[in-house]
Amino acid sequence: MSEQIVYLEGQYLPMSEAKIPVLDHGVLYGDGIFEGIRAYDGRVFKLAQHMERFESAAKAINLELPLPIGEISEIVLETCRRNALSSGYIRLVCTRGADGLGLYPHPSTHPPRLFCIAGQVALYSDEAYRRGLKVITSHLRRNNATIVNPQIKSLNYLNNILASIEARRYGADEAILLNSEGLVTECTGDNIFIVKRGVICTPPIWLGTLDGITRMVVLEIAQKMGYTVKEVPFTLFDVLNADEAFLTGTAAEIIALTELDGQPIADGVAGEITLALLQEFRKYTKLEESGAKI
Ligand code: PXG
Question: Is 153 annotated as catalytic?
Answer without folding.
Answer: yes
